[in-house]
Amino acid sequence: MARDTTDFRPIEGVDELVEHLAEGNKPRDKWRIGTEHEKFPFYVDGNAPVPYGGERGIRAILEGMQEKLGWDPIMDAGRIIGLVEPTGQGAISLEPGGQFELSGAPLETIHQTCREGNAHLAQVREIAEPMGIRFLGLGGSPKWSLAETPKMPKSRYEIMTRYMPKVGTKGLDMMYRTCTIQVNLDFESEADMRRKMQVSLKLQPLSTALFANSPFTEGRPNGFQSWRGDIWRDTDNQRSGLLEFCFSPDFGFADYVDWALDVPMYFVIRDGHYHDMTHVTFRQFMAGAARNEIPDGLPTMGDWANHLSTLFPDVRLKRFLEMRGADGGPWRRICALPAFWVGLLYDAAALDAAEALTSSWSYEEVLAMRNAVPEQGISAPFRNTTLREIARDVLVISRMGLKNRGRKNRDGYDETSFLSTLDEVVARGTTSAEELLSAYHTRWGGSIEPVFMEYAY
């Protein structure tokens, strides 16, 4: 999330919180695709991480991008921490360890998504390359220790950094040493949201497997195909993971609100200042728990929107659905991730087929799949088969959905070509992580340094 929300309307009751989510309902002709992707900046000379300050730092890249694009700066305590397109069509933000993120505009086709990604990468290269900086497309930082990783000066991250070790063992790794590709998708009604939430929760471990791309930590293999997937198993289980209540046949907006109300908060913003609220849940906040701690002490709709943005389930519900399972990766993956999910969820026949395929999958089975994927990738077992075989069926459905959409580029090609990189994973039977490990043990001679050349933007 590039910019925290400021909406000073007071909250009168829980019904308003439910309505806030329901306001995301959109007719099909208004459905859009919002793609986010993160990458690690590094100095070409020595493959070292890039700090915030200095003539060749993150701040200088942001200032150069601001001058080039004319986007509005996002400021925090007088420091530039991001950029936003003036009409809200996209933003650039920083993750805690300097991971550079594009939050894309809401677009109609995957063709547009790819053009957007291409343009962004070309723009950031134009600014960064004269500084000797490039960007790495992996799901986990392959070389730098947590101590070596820079810290970005964002107030919310200071609060999170203090809080994470209290609620899990891997939260700081999540913040500072992982990258993702995500897609945000719309729904037309509560029933449509329920179907999409349930299908995408069940298939999120498959997405993690197909996009597994984080096999190295601190210069050597870490024992995982998706280290990032393992990190999410013990980051903060009060606010993340696979949500069992979402599997209920009558799951709705009110159920998600009821869960979110009992998750501890991170912060509230008053007069530009971030107040640490990690000691109270949002329900306690609404009951007056902060009356003596912050100005006015009353919750606002902006506080609620910010709270929703600090929840980290595998699929996050706001006024749209966020697919959160995939590791970061090279350019082709930036296009493949939204194509995969749009094909499954934005065509009626494909959604019917995906729902039929997964309808009998229980919470316990999906949880076991989620736990197996970080180590085993697409070789993870499911019932009497493996995720590789499940992936074949799911990609057929996704391809059907994209074909049915019929969104063609100027050359007459539809969106199905963007699945080719995932077809290769299934045909090979090996993930990107396994290919990286093979290179490490053979042609790289036991060094991870070549990854900075082969996986750089």
TrEMBL record:
Any GO MF annotation of the entry: glutamate-cysteine ligase activity
Signal peptide positions (record): none
Annotated pathway: Sulfur metabolism; glutathione biosynthesis; glutathione from L-cysteine and L-glutamate: step 1/2
Biological process according to GO: glutathione biosynthetic process
SUPFAM superfamilies, alphabetized: Glutamine synthetase/guanido kinase
Keyword Transit peptide: yes
Pfam families: GCS2
Top-rank taxon: Bacteria
Transit peptide among keywords: yes
EC number in record: 6.3.2.2
InterPro entries (UniProt xref): GCL_bact_plant (IPR035434), GCS2 (IPR006336), Gln_synth/guanido_kin_cat_dom (IPR014746), Glut_cys_lig_pln_type (IPR011556)
Disulfide-linked positions: C114-C335
UniProtKB keywords: ATP-binding, Disulfide bond, Glutathione biosynthesis, Ligase, Nucleotide-binding, Transit peptide
Catalytic activity field: L-cysteine + L-glutamate + ATP = gamma-L-glutamyl-L-cysteine + ADP + phosphate + H(+)
Family to which this protein belongs: Belongs to the glutamate--cysteine ligase type 2 family. EgtA subfamily. Belongs to the carboxylate-amine ligase family. Glutamate--cysteine ligase type 2 subfamily.
Quaternary structure and partners: Homodimer or monomer when oxidized or reduced, respectively.
Function noted in UniProt: Catalyzes the synthesis of gamma-glutamylcysteine (gamma-GC).
Protein name: Glutamate--cysteine ligase
Source organism of this protein record: Mesorhizobium mediterraneum
Organism lineage: Bacteria, Pseudomonadati, Pseudomonadota, Alphaproteobacteria, Hyphomicrobiales
